[in-house]
Every structure is written in structure tokens, then in C-alpha cells.
Specification:
β7 (203-208) and β8 form a beta hairpin. The protein has six helices and 23 strands. The chain folds into two domains: 95-291, Sulfite Oxidase, Chain A, domain 2, CATH 3.90.420; 300-421, Sandwich (Immunoglobulin-like), CATH 2.60.40. Helices cover 10% and strands 28% of the residues. It binds the ligand Nc1nc2c(c(=O)[nH]1)N[C@H]1C(S)=C(S)[C@@H](COP(=O)(O)O)O[C@H]1N2 and molybdenum atom (MO).
Length: 423
Amino acid sequence: MPEPQRQASLSAPRREFFRRTAALGAVALGAGQSGTAVADDPDALQVPAWTRQPGEPVLWRPYGLPSEHEKHVIRRSRSPGVLPGAASSMTPLQDLFGIITPTGLVFERHHAGIPKIDPAQHRLVIHGLARNPRIFTMDDLVRFPSVSRIHFLECSGNTATEWSRPASANVQLSHGLLSCCEWTGVPLAVLLEEAGIRPQARWILAEGADGAAMSRSIPVSKALDDALVVYAQNGERLRPEHGYPLRLFLPGFEGNMSIKWLRRLKIGDAPFQTREETSKYTDVLPDGSARQFTFLMEAKSVITAPSPGQVLQGKGFHEITGLAWTGSGRVRRVDVSVDGGAHWHEARLEAPVLHRALTRFRLGWQWDGGPAVLQSRVTDETGFVQPTRSQLVAARGLNSLYHFNAIQSWRVSTDGSLSNVHA
Ligand SMILES: Nc1nc2c(c(=O)[nH]1)N[C@H]1C(S)=C(S)[C@@H](COP(=O)(O)O)O[C@H]1N2
Ligand SMILES: [Mo]
């Protein structure tokens, strides 16, 4: 579709559209147009009460917490869940900035609750097709050369509510099974070398120490590539809900495979066909057959602000911002539409744009007060373009639950409110 700017003669609706979107990409309001003139509010220069006395002492809270005015920024669940131990909580993407998810807001997904593990008693066993089957304590593991890397983690069930209707009320409930942290641990390749992996090894069973004994088969190629055995997250030891004291982390693969509370790695020559890769975590296609081992989280993006639940405070300048990511590597570009996908405008990608990490995008927009439908569309470095919902449904049908990565649409109404729609 040609850009409206490039058209020689503009039809009346085209001209109207051009008037409405010409200001996309604008960086701000004109000088002196936002806030209040100082002359109109002289009281603002008075010294406030909290400046007239000392504040709370140092070590008031030995472990810091957000301001009491930010209490609404919390993890939430779609429904309370019949079995609270087999449930998930979701990241409040609409209230976050940058690309790093604060640890206390990282979504949780547990199949049998959070085990209470004594790190002194925890062991990681590596056995099977190994010349030197090994048992490691936490102290043993932390002695190995380690790396710290920033990666996203997405549950393949993320956005599963959106297949047939726009069912989630906001971006936390539609896209909140998503986080991005700095992970520190030992490359799995280093541990496999220590255990003496045999040449016929093709798959590795990873098993958790939780009540679900969560188990998945990991291809050896991934294990030797960028898999990590992780003990720290965002600079501190893992939190209990994210796998304390040890988890597997597979960058760009579906979250389920990053086994938390990791206790065992068994090296084999074939996949182990665990419950989680047979009855669950497969994708039923239109013909009734099931795709198995769909590990990669393909390119996806979403606008986090403005998004449903937020209300645009008047027409004029608004920055559209969101997150884009791809299990295939780096994000190459993000385009934003304000008219439901009729026209696209390239957004600014904020550095750093990291491998298999969330990438923040931004685009200035002058809202004229009329109805609009906001969308974002990512292209990754392999050239993969995020599909529309109809393209995805045409390829996958409506039997699938996992791996929904279609373009998301937020409708802006004239009162400034936003809602989840299928455009
Ligand atoms: N042992 C174990 N590992 C597990 C799970 C689990 O229930 N038990 N849940 C998996 C799923 S489905 C996801 S999406 C991620 C979630 O990781 P998080 O809770 O740290 O966000 O952990 C995975 N690893
Ligand atoms: Mo998951």
C-alpha cells in the first residue's frame, strides 16, 4: 500500500486521513503547551510539608519496596483458579518502562505450587549418556565460570485468550505471561563437558524438584548453544517462585522448557515423551493432527501504552510505546498503525536491541480526538513478519491453544478510553 504522502493526488477521504496521521512520529507538543503556566498556579512554588522535616531513616526498609502510591502495580491472575498451586499470575506490562521486568512483577506459572527448597540440600544430577555422571551441590555449581545475559521468557500459553474473540480486558491479562530479566548462571555446555556427554547424545531430559516433577526433553543442539543453568535473576539469587535455588533457562524457547527447581538432567538419544510434550504443549492443527516440539517463540509485539484500562487525557501529543521480541534473535523493525492496519509507520527502537530480549519501541502521535485502532507489527532479523490474526488462523485453525503471536488491536474511542478488539 503506498504511503499517503507519496500519492500525487489525494481523494477526500485520503486527505482527511493524511490530516489525521501526518503528525505520527512527532516528538512532543509545541513549547509551552503542556503543564500549567507558572503565573496560573503560584502556590506550586510553596515549600511542601515533606520538605520541612527529615524523612525516614536509612535502613527503614532493609529490603526496598515501591512507593505506597504504586500499590496497584502488581501481578494479577485471569481467574482465581480451582487449584491455586496450578495457576499463573501475570506481569503488569501496562505500568512498566524500559525492557527489564522488576523481579517482584515477573509473571509466575507453576503446575504444582512453589516448593520450599533448602539450597544446602539441593542437588543437580547429570546422568544417562555421560562418561562421568555427576552430582553437583549449589556451591559446586557457583564455582563454574558463569555468564549474565538479558533474555525474555514467554509462556507459550501467552495470549491464548485471543484466538476466537478479544477476550482479555487489558494487556496484563492478554500478554502478561511475559518477562525480561538478566539471568546469571553456568552455560549448560560447560556442565555437559564436565559430565562427559557421549557422541550419540541427542536429547536431554530436564526434571524439576516441584510436586509436578515438571519434565521436558531438550535437544542437545540447544543445550550446547545458549542454554543456561541459572542461579540468579536481576542481580540476586533466584526468587522461590522462579526456581530457587536453580533453574534451566532456554533463551527464545517456550517458557515451559525452562524447568524451575532443576534437579536432574538425563542425557539420551531420543526424546523422552513426557506428559508435558505429549498431552500438553502440542498444537492441534485444522486437520486434527498435532504439531509436537514447537519450541521457538516466534516474533511478536504489543502496544503497552496507551492500552485498555488507560484513558487518553485529551487530544494532542501521546507517545505510543510497547514491546517487541523474537525467539529467533534480534528485532529488526516495528511498525505502528493508528487506523487498524491500513497504513504503517516505522517506530523508533530503543537501544539496546538485544538477542532474544524484549525491545522497547516508541512513536509519537498527535491524537485528533477521533476513533482510532492502534496496532504494532514486528519484523525480526530473519525477515519474519508478525502475522495478522486472520493469517494466523488461516495457517493454524482454531484448535490451537499455544503460540498465538498475532498483531493485537486496541480501539481508541472518542472519550479517550481503550478496548481490546479484533480488527
Ligand atoms: N519445575 C517446574 N518448572 C517450570 C514450571 C513448573 O510448573 N514446574 N512451569 C513452566 C512454565 S509453563 C513456564 S511459562 C515458566 C514460568 O517461569 P516463571 O514462573 O519464572 O515466570 O516456568 C516453567 N518451568
Ligand atoms: Mo508456560
